[in-house]
Amino acid sequence: MKRGEKRSSKSSVAAGTKSGGTVRIISGRFRGRKLSVLDVQGLRPTTDKNKEMLFSWLMPYTLDAVCLDAFAGSGGLGFEALSRYGKSCTFIELNKNAAEKLADNIQLLDLSSQQAQIIQGNTLDTLNNLNQPYDLIFLDPPFNQDLLPQTIQRIAENALLSVDGVIYIECEGQGGSYSVPENWQLIKEKRSPQILARVYQRAN
């Protein structure tokens, strides 16, 4: 599930916030755990079926991976990677209240600060300030905001994807109007009318 721009509050009815729902971790050491998420405009669910597909693709790359969930929302992808024995994950989330919910779920799973870190802020700005490469990056931004081209450019310019690292990119079914560096090789793809999902691997 991914975040939008609307601010929300966990406790204020006046703010128009609902309590939200849950996402389920489907495999690994936290299998079956349910994590609460906020009902924030722009959030959309990643179904168990789609997560099963994605992490079957990523099975060779998840163990001990240093991960980046660049538009974290619920954190469902990053937490799934940690459950499958990723080494660590950095979550970037713009919405303050969604970031607070991520912190609650990190505490619930008893993850250390070395295993999980939250950066609350704008993804494009944050990418310019990161100083390490990542083995596994998730890019699942809010739809219809044309965020992928600039995001990919900043990841490439800052060398944030490690050599042999993989990056998952999800966008609207007809929204694949982005390009990637020549050394990112497409290794998996699934198209539907609603979603275009791709995994690339950096060659060098």
From TrEMBL:
It comes from the Bacteria. InterPro entries: DNA_methylase_N6_adenine_CS, RNA_MeTrfase_RsmD, SAM-dependent_MTases_sf. Pfam families: Cons_hypoth95. Keywords: Methyltransferase, rRNA processing, S-adenosyl-L-methionine, Transferase. CDD domains: AdoMet_MTases. The keyword Oxidoreductase does not apply. It catalyses: guanosine(966) in 16S rRNA + S-adenosyl-L-methionine = N(2)-methylguanosine(966) in 16S rRNA + S-adenosyl-L-homocysteine + H(+). Its EC number is 2.1.1.171. GO terms for molecular function: 16S rRNA (guanine(966)-N(2))-methyltransferase activity; nucleic acid binding. Specifically methylates the guanine in position 966 of 16S rRNA in the assembled 30S particle. Belongs to the methyltransferase superfamily. RsmD family. This is Ribosomal RNA small subunit methyltransferase D. It comes from Paraglaciecola psychrophila 170. The lineage of its organism: Bacteria, Pseudomonadati, Pseudomonadota, Gammaproteobacteria, Alteromonadales.
